[in-house]
Write a structure and sequence with these properties.
Layout (H helix, E strand, L loop, with lengths): L21 H8 L3 E6 L9 H6 L18 H10 L11 H11 L1 H12 L1 E7 L10 H8 L3 E6 H11 L3 H15 L5 E4 L1 H4 L11 H18 L7 H14 L3 E5 L17 H7 L6 E5 L4 H10 L3 E3 L2 H7 L3 H8 L18 H24 L5 H20 L6
Parallel strand pairs: 1-2, 2-3, 3-4, 4-5, 5-6, 6-7
Length: about 400
């Protein structure tokens, strides 16, 4: 069997992929990844303080006595992103940020997004969208397709902000969802943030929805804040999302302090998964760390469940190889996808791809070296997870 594979413009053989065979490195590097859950890159320049706040999931200010660069993701930026900006690997933070400012956000985005080798972006637009590039902006910078993932909660909050009464909320939301997702590739819910996954899995009745909408509207009028967190309404949004028929993403596990981590274990979704199974709608569990093994079990036993380890890969940095290896333990390989969940700094988009490629290369090379897998099968699995599974689930057609 030939071991000649094309080089990818976004994947340099000069990277440190020790422990991997060169043929595997070239093959994994050549995959035009489909990032099935990502957000836009920064649209404007940011200060050092702002940058450091964007490379952590904490929503608290960075204490004056420390820096977020002293972390796995900080070290990964200085190791792997610095060369893309014409710096030596392991540059110090001051040199790195000075070079970043010198180039400007537009050029930094262009370089790092190109270096990622991502061939298709599925961009979720429901969070602070005015600060980041929209799908069209991501496509313009990269020359690659970028489609939208619509956040259910954002649609509901827009309906309330534009004006509705309790009795009319359900119909207004359904109409808005269908219009808003007319060209979207999928939907997403952040129920893990707004309540937790330990909610009644059944669709609420129309009377329950109207009563809950009334409570929400009164709260919004009193506080001036439009935020949907009532479990009845969240269930309603999810089931209307299922009715819409598009792939439905769930944030799972690790995230900012708004998430109650022990209530974001995907095993809590088992009842909903089983009730949704007859619909045929694909349920995609995002990120999942530290519950990625639980997600792998669900993906194994339920045909409508898929998962990724996106966010966890970036934030575990040099340890991300272990996270990716663990994601391969239980689930059929047709049920695992790639994502970065990058939001803001293009460093996160680049690292999401690079660290995943490095991890897959090392793990699969080990399987081949041990005689457990053939190289051809290892390359096929990497291609499935990196691109083909997402193309099938979201109906993207053949890649380039």
């Amino acid at each position: 069997m030939s071991t000649e594979f094309p080089e990818s413009p976004g994947f340099s053989s000069a990277q440190d992929f020790s422990g991997a065979d060169e043929a595997m490195e070239r093959a994994v590097g050549a995959i035009p990844l489909v990032d099935h859950h990502v957000h836009g890159a920064l649209a404007t320049d940011v200060s050092r303080r702002q940058f450091e706040e964007l490379i952590t999931e904490s929503d608290r200010p960075v204490p004056a006595w420390m820096t977020q660069f002293d972390s796995q993701i900080g070290f990964a930026i200085l190791r792997h992103c610095a060369p893309v900006l014409d710096l030596d690997p392991h540059a110090d933070p001051e040199t790195y940020l000075a070079r970043r400012a010198e180039l400007g956000t537009e050029e930094v985005n262009r370089r790092l997004l190109a270096a990622s080798g991502i061939g298709h972006f599925l961009v979720e637009t429901g969070y602070r969208g005015d600060e980041i590039l929209d799908p069209a902006g991501m496509s313009a910078v990269t020359g690659r397709p970028a489609d939208e993932i619509v956040r259910l909660e954002a649609v509901a909050e827009r309906v309330v902000a534009e004006g509705t009464d309790a009795a009319g909320f359900a119909a207004r939301f359904e109409a808005a969802l269908w219009e808003r997702s007319r060209t979207a590739r999928g939907l997403k819910t952040i129920v893990a943030y707004r309540h937790g996954l330990d909610l009644d899995p059944r669709p609420p009745s129309p009377n329950e929805v109207t009563a809950a909408a009334g409570r929400w509207l009164r709260t919004a009028e009193r506080t001036g804040t439009v935020r949907v967190d009532d479990p009845v309404l969240l269930r309603h949004l999810i089931w209307k999302g299922v009715d819409r028929g598009l792939p439905l993403q769930f944030h799972i596990g690790y995230g900012d302090p708004d998430v109650d981590l022990h209530r974001s274990d995907p095993l809590l979704l088992r009842g909903l998964i089983e009730l949704a199974e007859p619909s045929g709608v694909s349920l995609l569990l995002l990120h999942c760390y530290p519950f990625h093994r639980n997600a792998g079990f669900l993906a194994q036993v339920y045909p409508n469940v898929y998962f990724d380890v996106g966010l966890g890969v970036n934030y575990t940095g040099a340890r991300s190889v272990a996270v990716v290896a663990e994601s391969l333990e239980l689930a059929p390989f047709a049920k695992i996808l790639f994502s970065s969940d990058a939001w803001g700094p293009a460093e996160l988009h680049h690292l999401g791809a690079l660290l995943w490629r490095r991890a897959m290369t090392r793990v699969l090379s080990g399987f081949v070296a041990d005689g457990e897998w053939s190289r051809a099968r290892a390359v096929r699995v990497a291609t499935m997870i990196g691109a083909e599974n997402a193309r099938r689930v979201y109906g993207l057609g053949e890649g380039t």
